[in-house]
Amino acid sequence: MAWIYLVVAGVFEVVWATFMKFSDGFHKLGFTALTIIGMLISFWCLAEATRRLPMSIAYPIWTGIGAVGTVIIGVVLFGDRLSPLTWFFVGCLFIGIIGIKLTSH
To answer: Which residue spans traverse the membrane (predicted)?
Structure first.
């Protein structure tokens, strides 16, 4: 169950970061509220995950899911353009997330 909490926490990190972008610097109240709700869900799920998983495993996976997911959302929703070298390093992040999961006990 801890891993499910961790994945949900990572997904909601992407959610709140996306809503923060839509909030236009916290000037749009509805998106600002959704940003805060997403943050609360993300942090709560991370806290639940760290009750059962070591922090040294949970935190990097949480931030990794958030980083990779936010890059993908930036490209898909906001038209961000990344160089091939940047994509290479995003792939390295993804491989790192998988590697941490596979090598943790």
So the answer is: 27-47, 59-79, 85-103
